[in-house]
Amino acid sequence: MTLTLDVSAVPPKPAGAGRYIVELAKRLPSVMDDVQLMSRRGDDERWRAWSPASHVVPRVPSSRPGRLLYEAVAVAHTSLMRRSDVWHSPHYTMPHGATSPVVVTVHDMTFFTNPEWHERRKVDFFRHAIQYATREAAVILTVSEFTARQLRDLCPTERPVVVAPLGVDLERFSLESSDDSVSAYDLQRNFVLYVGTLEPRKGVDVLLRAFEEIAQDDPTVELWLAGQRGWGVDDVEEQIARHPFAERIRQLGFVDDAELPRLYRSARVVAYPSRGEGFGLPVLEALACGAPVVTTRDSVMAEVAGEAATLSTAGDAVDLAAGLQSLLQLDDAQRGAVRTVGHARAATFTWDRMLEQHLVAYEMAHQLR
């Protein structure tokens, strides 16, 4: 089977859905004879480094409008499409008029459930893209049961839906590592860690209000925010600037792959108060590293964490502060128990399991060729 994976939507610093695509591209050549990666022009070098056994084809325009137009209009008529037994579009959209069966990954349904969490210009576009995929794709992939349920409710489809939960690299995100001493950060400090893009749906505004509550009682605790600037970040930055404990808030920006597990292992608590996600990968990574985690109840993050995390109500700063406080007060024995339970939970989510479910989806699609 010849599979083409469209990797053109992955930004220079992958996170979330981008990380999923990278991990998939790395593993596909180990289980498939012929893997083609369609990348943006000039972006082929990093994909050859990540997936050296794949055939990288740098055809897609580098600009976002150009990329989307190329996918919608041109891809269906290319030799790359003709050579493909199955085409995988891993980020909501798919080629129009495709002549090979297409598998589409839908990460979340928040463009329907909570359009206010997104830039207005993206909402209509991605709503139409998801609706088109539910009509025209051979198979739909989702990264969680939570998203699969919402998809069936909001965009009923006759297409098969395959759930492929994301995974975690347990060698990298581990309980202990000998290289933590070389960190660029002072990991001996008493800090609450947030990892994720800074944008409205992530609940950073709620975390900042909760931090005000716990900082009043603990003069040593700090809040470290690790992640890239997203859209709508101005309000959060203004909130930080006028925060009564602004001197104890550190904005780390994008954290590289080597540093991220060290931060998780050293954090007193990892807070992920997102209002809604397709999966919530930082929760899984933090649990794998043994960190006490507070995240949002009635969400996909609660589905991922199971009994291994403390849950708070989305948007409720008082509830979040209580959860943070309870974990900050754990003694060594209690923290040890939390580490064990969290790591065991994370170990049930692997990238190999994710890959297996993709192979199921590809075979379903291939049978339609």
| DSSP E strands, number | 13
Estimated structural class:
alpha/beta
The string of secondary-structure elements, in order, is EHEHEHHEEHHEHEEHEHEHEHEHEHHH
Would you identify the CATH H-level superfamily of the largest domain? Glycogen Phosphorylase B
What fold name goes in the CATH topology slot of the largest domain? Rossmann fold
Determine the strand fraction and express it as a percent band. 15-25%
CATH top level class name of the largest domain: Alpha Beta
Q: What is the domain tally?
A: 2
Shape: globular
Mean pLDDT: 95
What does this 3D model show about the protein?
The protein has 369 residues and is of the alpha/beta class. It folds into two domains: 2-167 and 351-366, Rossmann fold, CATH 3.40.50.2000; 180-346, 3-Layer(aba) Sandwich (Rossmann fold), CATH 3.40.50. Helices cover 41% and strands 16% of the residues. The protein has 15 helices and 13 strands. The protein has helices at residues 17-27, 44-50, 64-74, 79-82, 110-113, 120-136, 145-154, 204-217, 234-241, 259-266, 281-288, 300-305, 317-328, 332-346, 351-366, and strands at residues 2-6, 34-40, 55-60, 86-89, 102-106, 139-142, 161-163, 191-195, 222-226, 249-253, 269-272, 293-296, 310-312. The strands form two sheets. The chain has a seven-stranded parallel β-sheet, sandwiched between helices. Helix 8 (204-217) crosses helix 13 and helix 11 packs across helix 14. The longest helix has 17 residues, at 120-136. The chain is globular. The relative contact order is 0.13. The model has no long low-confidence stretch (mean pLDDT 95).
